Amino acid sequence: MQISSQTVFQYFGKDIVLFRLTDPSGSYVEVLNYGATFVSICVPDHCGRLENVILNYPDIRDYFTDTCYLGSTIGRFANRIRNAQFTLNGKTYYLDKNDGENCNHSGNSGLHQKIFDAEIRDKELVFSTHSPDGEGGFPGNMDVAIHFSFHDQTLTMKYRAVSDMETVFNPTCHAYFNLSGQKKYVLQHELQIHACEYLEMGNDFLPTGKFLPVAGTAFDFSQYRSIEQMAIQKHDVMKGYNTCFPIPGNGKIRPMASLRETNSGRTMTVSTTMPGLLLYTGDYLCGQHAPFEGLCLEAQFYPDTPNQVHFPNCMMKSDKPVEQTIMFQFD
User: Fold this and answer.
1) Cα separation of 241 and 7, whole Å?
2) Which among 201, 174, 146, 172 has a CA at the least distance from the CA of 275?
3) pLDDT, tens digit (0-9, with 9 covering 90-100), for 65-121
4) Residue 119, pLDDT score
5) Domain 2-330 CATH class label
6) Three-state secondary structure along the chain?
7) Side by side, which strands form the sheet with 296-300?
8) Cβ contacts of residue 251 below 8 Å, gap of 6+?
9) Taking Cα atoms as reference points, which of 288, 14, 22, 301 lies closest to residue 151?
C-alpha cells in the first residue's frame, strides 16, 4: 500500500489535507483529515473499470457546511440519544440537542467536525484528536486515534480511545455507498444482513427497547434481497430504512452484511467488532445528492444505548483504552 497526501484547503488557519491510500491493484481510498472523512473509494467493476462507490462533494469547501455527515467519522456516540441526556454513576449528563429534543451523532461538536492530526506509519495512516471533558456534554478528556489501512481491496478502520473518566464510546463510519459507481438509486441494490432480529423504532428513530424477529417481515435480509422489493412491504413513515439490526459477537470481528449491485458486479462485505448494524437508505439526503442515491451500513452500538440497560454496554472505564474495528471488503 502506498500513501500520498496533498493540502487542499486552509480552514481557520489549519491545513486540510487529502490522503490517498493506494492498493497494489490500483484501487484507492481518499480521506480528509477534516472529520476523518472519506471522499472516495475507487474499486473496479467486473470489467476492471475503477469508479468511486461513495457519495462525495467535488468542492472540498462543501464538507464544512454539510448536514448529511457525508463520508464522516461519527463519535463520540453514533446515532441518537433520547432527550439528549444519560445518567452515569449517579450523575446526569446533558448533551447537545440537534435532533428535536434528542442528540444525534454527538451533537454540534462531534468527531465529524474535528481537524485531525495525521501520521503515516509503515502500512497505515493514523489520525488522532482530543475531545475535552464536557465537549458536547460528554464526560471525560478523551484521546481518539483512527488507524486506516487498505490492502487487497479491504479498507480497515481501527478506532482507539482512552478517557480519564468513565464515559461512552460508539464510533462509526457514515459513508454513503452506491456500488454502481453512478448516480443511480441504491434501492435496486441487493442486501444480505446476518441478523435474526431488528430493533423496533418509533417515528423519532429511537428504539422502543423491543427486539422483533425479522422472519416474514420487510426486515428479513437473511438472504440477498432487493432493498426496493423489501421496502414496499413496510408500513411506516419511511420509504426506505433507518433500522438497527443487532448481531452480537462478544467483541470479535465478524461479517455483518453484504451489499451487491448486479450491473457493476461489485460486492461489499461489512465486518466489525461492534454489536449492531444501522441500515440507512439515504431518505433524507439533500442538496447536491438526492434521496436514495447512497446508503449507509453503519457498524455501531445500538441507538440510545446509554439509556437502555439491556443493550450491549458501550461504556469505557477511565484510563483503560478501548478499540473497535470496521472493515469494508470489496469484490
Assistant:
1) 37
2) 172
3) 999 999 999 999 999 999 999 999 999 999 999 999 999 999 999 999 999 999 999
4) 97
5) mainly beta
6) CEEEEEEEEEECCEEEEEEEEECCCCCEEEEECECCEEEEEEEECCCCCEEECECCCCCHHHHHCCCCCCCEEECCECCEEHHHEEEECCEEEECCCCECCEEECCHHHCHHHCECEEEEECCEEEEEEEECCCHHHCCCCEEEEEEEEEECCEEEEEEEEEECCCEECECEEECCECCCCCCCCHHHCEEEECCCEEEEECCCCCEEEEEEECCCCCCCCCCCEEHHHHHCCCCCCCCCCEEEEECCCCCCCEEEEEEEECCCCEEEEEEECCCEEEEECCCCCCCCCCCCCCEEEEEECCCCHHHCCCCCCCEECCCCCEEEEEEEEEC
7) 242-246, 276-280, 296-300
8) 273
9) 22
Q: What is the pLDDT of residue 163?
A: 98
Taking the CA of residue 123 as centre, how many other CA atoms within 13 Å lie in the half-sphere pointing to its CB? 9
Share above pLDDT 70 across residues of the chain, in percent, rounded to a whole number = 100
How is residue 41 written as a grid cell? 473509494
Active site residues: 174, 298
Q: What is the pLDDT of residues 147-185, one digit of tens each?
A: 999 999 999 999 999 999 999 999 999 999 999 998 789
Task: Report whether 291 contacts 282 (CB < 8 A).
Answer: yes
On whether the CB atoms of residues 60 and 38 are closer than 8 A, the answer is: no
Residue 185 identity: Y
